[in-house]
Each structure stands twice: as C-alpha cells, then as structure tokens.
Amino acid sequence: MVNGESRSIDQASIEMMEKAAAEGVNTAFDRAEATKPCPIGAVGSCCKHCGMGPCRVPLPKGKEETPQEKQKRRGVCGATAETIAARNFIRMIAGGAAAHSDHGRGVAELFLAAAKGEAPGYEIRDEQKLLQVAIDWGIEIGDRSNKEIAVDIGERALAEYGRQEGELLFLKMAPLKRQALWQRQGVAPRGIDREIVEIMHRTHIGVDQEYQNLLKQGVRAAIADGWGGSMMATELQDILFGTPAPVAGKVNLGVLKTDEVNLIIHGHEPLLSEMIVAAAQNPEMTEMAKSKGAKGINIAGICCTANEILMRHGVPIAGNFLQQELAIVTGAVEAMVVDVQCVMQSITTVAECYHTKIITTSPKAMIPGATHIEFDEHNALKSAETIVRTAVENYPNRSKNVHIPSQQTDLIAGFSHETINYLLGGLFRASYRPLNDNIINGRIRGVAGVVGCNNARVKHNEAHIAMVKELIKNDVLVITTGCNAIACGEAGLMVPEAASEYAGSGLAEVCETVGIPPVLHMGSCVDNSRILMAATAMVKDGGLGDDISELPVAGAAPEWMSEKAISIGQYFVASGVFTVFGVTWPTLGSNEVTEFLFKDFERMYGGMWAFEPDPIKGAHLMIAHIDKKRKALGIDKARERVLYDMAMRRELT
Ligand code: SF4
Ligand code: MSK
Question: What is the pTM of this model?
Fold first, then answer.
C-alpha cells in the first residue's frame, strides 16, 4: 500500500495515488522514490559539454587547498568547479528563457497572421491594450485601423527576437533607475534569440572561463525572458484573447465529471486551447456527445494552459504539474491534449492502462504513443473540432473502473495588473496608490510573488501552502502564478473569505474592504511579467522609492523544478527582487559561485538569490527582507494597529 500522506497534502491526489498503486500504475511519485538524484550533478559540479567528459569536480576536502591539490580538482580541459557550476546554471537560464520566449514568438506569429486576416477565428479583443502597446513602442496610431496598427506591432514583436543591437523595446517599461542600472552593468539585452545563443556559445568547451562573466550573460538572457519574450507573450495574448478580469472558478480533480466527456488541456500556450473551448461549446459537438451517451463536454485544464483558460473563461482546473498523471488515473478522461512544456512523457504509458487518448498538437513536442493532430493556426477551429470529436468518440470506451475524487475548491482568478489597478483605485482613478498607502501605513507589510512548479522530490503542494500561509499571516499580500497558484486555489486561499481565516489583521482589513482574496492569481508562467509590471506600477505611483529594489517585496519558488523557474528567478533578481528557492540549489558545488549569486548580486542588482528548503524559514527570510526595505524607506515605525471606523474604510476603497 502506498503512503500517499507522505507524498502530497492534497487529499484528491492521495486518493488517486492509492488507486494507481492498486491498479499497478507507475507515477512520478513512484519514480522519484526509485531514482535518486546524482549528488554531483544536483549541485552543478558535473560537466558533459564535450566528448572528454562527463567530468565531475567535487568540492575541496579541506578548507585550505595547496596549488597542487587545486589543479587536480578540474575537468579534463582544465575547467574549474566555478566555471562548471556557472556554465550549468546559465544553460538552465538559456533553456528557460528559450521556452518562454519561443512561446512568445508563437503568439507573435499568430498575432501577425490574425492582424493580416490570415488566421480566421482570432481577432483583437483588447483595443485599449493594442493602443497602449503601440504608444509604448512608438507606433503611429493617427487614424489608422486597428488591423494596420496590429500588423506593425506583430512585425516589431518578431523583430525583437533577431535584434542584433540596441535594447529590447519592453525595457522601457521598467523604472528609469532600473534601466540605468542595467546599462551600467552592461546587461541590457539586445535581441532575445541573440542572448540565448550567446549562452550556448560561451558555455561551449574553451570559451568563457570566468564565472562572473558567465553569470553576467545569464542575467542578460533572463532579462530578455522576463522583459522580452514572456512580456511579449502576455501582452499580445491579452490583446488577442482579452485581458483577464476577476472570474470565479473551481480547482482540483473533482472538477472532472462522471457523466460527461472529459477533455483535459495541458501545457502552456493558449493559442489552441482558446479554440478548443469555443469548439466544445458548438451545439453540434454537444449533440454528438449525447449520441454517445454523455450529458455534455467538460473541459478542464492542467498546468499553465489551465491558468490561461481559467483567467479568461472560468474553465475549471483539474490540477498542477504533479497531478497530470493522476487525472488520467481517475479513468474518466477521454482525451488529454497537450502542446509544450511540463508535459510528462509518462502520460502515454499511464493512458495505456486506461482508455485516455493523448493528443500532441505542436510540431515541436511529440510523444511516442500519442496521437498527433497538428495545430494549424490558419484553420484553428477545424483543428480544435477534430480534437473535441476524438475525445467524444472515445467516451464509449470508458471502463467501469472510474473514480473521481470529490475535492474541488472555489477560487477567484483573473488579477491582471490592470485589474488590480482598477480594483484598488477605481475606474476613474485607477492606481496602485491605495496599495502603496496601505504598505506605508503598515496594514500591508509588503508584497510577495510566490510562483513555480511542483517537484516530485518534495511533498506535493506542502511547501507552497506552508510558505504562502506564513506570509499572509504576517500581513504580506501574495501574488502568484503557475503551479503555486493552482496549489493555493486547492487549499482555499483564493476566495475573499480566506482573508479573515488566514491573513494577519492588517492584510485582512484591506482584503475585506476591497473584496479581494489575500492571494491573488495573476496567471501562467509567462505572466510573471505581470508581476514585473505590478512592481513597476508600485514604483511609479510613488512613496516607496524609485526602483523595484527599494520596494518591500520578495519572490519565491518553494517547489521549483523547471529551467523556466531558474530563468524567472534570475529576472526577478536582476529586476531588484530578493528571491528564495526551495528543494535544491544547482550551484552548491561551488561556494564562490553560490556566494556571488547570494551576496554580490545584491550590490550589483539590488536583488539576490537565497536557498532555503524549509518553507517557513524561507517565508521569514522574505519577511526579514521586506522589513529591511521598510526600514530603509523610513516606514518601519508605521506598523501600528489601527482600529477602523466606517469613514476610514470608505477612504480605503
Ligand atoms: Fe570535461 Fe571540459 Fe569537456 Fe566539460 S568541457 S566535459 S569539463 S573536458
Ligand atoms: S506549469 S514551469 S511546472 S509552474 Fe507553467 Fe507549473 Fe513550473 Fe510548469
């Protein structure tokens, strides 16, 4: 019998692990127990960048090393532990930045095709944002049509990838002081592709051998992700699909239905999933489902695709990264359609034990054993209908061995940075000023961006929830994306009532007055760019310094696992945010590299990394940093407790 309690804090997941074990189905939880990580690779001390390796360079045995001992602790080519750790670290950034930015490129290509009328079914939904981006990028508006403006934006967006000199257009969105710092440090990115390619070049055998210089390029590529590729994905998706606004939804495996066709959308890009949601609403499809004995078609999401379609359509979320196999184990999923990123190869083998069809849709991401139905953006609705039909036709193949856990939790999502602006400041004076005021007067201590994945090496969702609860208990407002957002939803932290139950009295007062949860869902992994925009808006609205590094804010990814998380963390740090990661830290094989990232970066960028596997201790590192910033701003004395009368409450809204 599997001990599910040791693997997850989520009851629905535990139930499905037990079902999987009873049916002999192997999941990531089993594999994590069977396969231990290589201790040298885990700390970044193994290099396999050429055919003379892999070379493993462990930490020195004693504190003092003789020159003779030191020269032995090198790879065949002479690379030191420092060089190897830094090279591995920035290759992770390259992988993460490439994933986000290639997503952004796909959005930009579709955006341009839509603007030219070559992608039927897609249109401009947020005209205001279209015009705002045009203004930000210096594109003429005049009396030109939206389509003409959109063509210019699409072409300019794609050119950002191949830009060879100058700076990325979106860097101008950052506070002026931050832009100046990036220029001073020589890390303002040129083109998105260029910075990623340069990492691959510099980390080839015999190129960049100085760890500080390698890390500098890592910073440049990470900025190209956060303030480039990811921001592009978010902004252009908002223009095409609409900027999210608060929406009610449900989360956890209990959203699957016993008497409907369950179609799960998993991955990251909303380009196809938007169309699948539309196709499933087609009465013809519903009729077809009924003809197969189902009452209808139920769409649910996993991972960041889930966040995208929840934020814009209220489509329920079945789970986060570590729940993808467990959703299939219910026996109730007719099809799981995937695009790119965070899709486990094992979903096809789990699916073989049930009736589920796995459908891949991207030419960049195929899986042996899956059915490939390629997404054609010029004929997107047709691709979507083929997928929905495949799911419906599979319904009669469902066996009797279905068990859907009952757990599903209510949540409110859709807190784009524009929405927060509006909620706090009102329609006619939309502003972050009320948030800043509440930080200055101490009701809110600070703001934390808690994001990132699940990691099968630690108990599913445990660190996410422990850290977030500790933060809100201490009056820190939490903004979240990705799999942390899904975990928080499952734990019931994303409803307004959670404020009175879990938040400190100051934060609870503000949340109750404004009517928001203490944990705000800001979207998917690329939407971490919304956190950058929110932080910039806080700087621009005044009272909390001139740069993001002066704000009482911090970031964290307590259960990170993907290279994208490292890239996100690095652009948080490069933007001036103190950022804590849990689970494991990939440069522990070199004390010098680790010290440089944890200490010297603060002097250089105003933000730095930290590693703390204990989520409560991690939360307190963040709180200590927030308090340090409050002190520097001279607002540390303001955290007095105030009893609110009605007039004060009105003033808050
Ligand atoms: Fe070994 Fe150097 Fe080759 Fe890396 S690049 S595998 S350290 S010889
Ligand atoms: S899905 S990158 S597991 S957050 Fe964006 Fe979750 Fe991490 Fe993937």
Answer: 0.95
